[in-house]
Specification:
Elements: E1 6-10, H1 18-27, E2 32-38, E3 55-58, E4 61-64, H2 68-79, E5 85-92, H3 105-115, E6 120-125, H4 142-154, E7 166-171, E8 180-181, E9 187-188, E10 196-198, E11 207-212, E12 215-220, H5 222-225, H6 238-243, E13 247-252, H7 262-270
Parallel strand pairs: 1-2, 1-5, 2-4, 5-6, 6-7, 10-13
Antiparallel strand pairs: 3-4, 7-13, 8-9, 11-12
Helix pairs in contact: 1-4, 2-3
């Protein structure tokens, strides 16, 4: 891929979020970016689709009154040049662990692209539970945006997408001095650059619910574990990497796989 690469950019936080602006600025240095993103916050909608959605011109591209999956289909099929790669994010809040892959609108946009046969990258910035909710600033996304730009430039030619269909990238909030902006608005290497590691999704799952006065409240306890001294996730997982202050990159495939099961064959034959 060269600098004339076509990039489709979307997210689930909405087109006016700082995370998508950071990616737009970073990726514009390495390709032609067409932004097709939700007009407002569509977090945690998974691969929900609206099918008929109004679209409006926006300074970054197009704002769609729909979901991230709507945006990917609209961008691929109608609104922009057919892309070489789809990028989704950068999300405010991490998307780590196997259980969030089908829940996250950010990741679901990458999955939607994968079903089209287009390589994709989903990107998210971890915000500690103790700081949530937080109004993140544009500069806080600089390092993860640089990591995504690096992958967009190099992963396709390196053959990464011959095995993976999309990459799920999660980064910690940058520590002070971990990256600096150059005169062109990009990010340059420093001795404190956050390391990037290849990971697999964690299988830790810890959700429960409480009921009070006829209202059930769901609790995702995994986020509290990220601020504990005894994280249950083993080495090599995405949560462990972000917990240790590293940029996690998980190479993933989109279609659900099926395996041969003798026991199910026997049941089917006996029906």
């Amino acid at each position: 891929m060269s600098d004339d690469r076509e990039i489709l950019l979307t997210n689930d936080d909405g087109i006016d979020s700082p995370g998508i602006r950071a990616l737009y600025d970073a990726l514009s240095a390495v390709g032609n970016v067409t932004t097709v993103a939700p007009a407002d916050d569509q977090s945690a909608v998974g691969r929900a689709m609206t099918y008929e959605v109004p679209v409006h011109e926006h300074e970054l591209g197009y704002a769609v009154e729909g979901t991230p999956s709507d945006c990917v289909v609209a961008g691929l099929a109608e609104l922009g040049p057919y892309p070489d790669i789809v990028v989704s994010g950068c999300n405010e809040g991490a998307n780590i662990g196997a259980y969030v892959l089908g829940r996250s609108g950010t990741v679901s946009a990458a999955v939607e692209a994968a079903f089209f046969g287009v390589p994709a990258i989903a990107a998210s910035l971890h915000v500690p539970q103790s700081e949530w909710p937080r109004d993140t600033e544009l500069e806080e996304y600089a390092e993860v945006a640089e990591a995504v730009r690096y992958l967009v430039e190099r992963a396709p030619d390196a053959g990464v997408f011959e095995d993976a269909e999309y990459l799920n990238v999660n980064a910690p909030l940058p520590s002070e001095g971990s990256a600096v902006e150059d005169s062109g608005g990009g990010v340059v290497d420093t001795d404190q650059r956050t390391p990037m590691v290849v990971t697999r999704p964690s299988h830790v799952y810890d959700m429960d619910a409480t009921e009070e006065n006829g209202v059930v409240t769901l609790h995702d306890n995994t986020w509290g574990q990220m601020e504990d001294d005894n994280l249950p996730d083993p080495e090599g997982t995405d949560r462990r990497a972000v917990y240790e202050g590293k940029i996690s990159v998980s190479p993933l495939t989109a279609p659900h796989t099926t395996e041969h099961h003798d026991a199910l064959d026997d049941l089917a034959e006996q029906f």
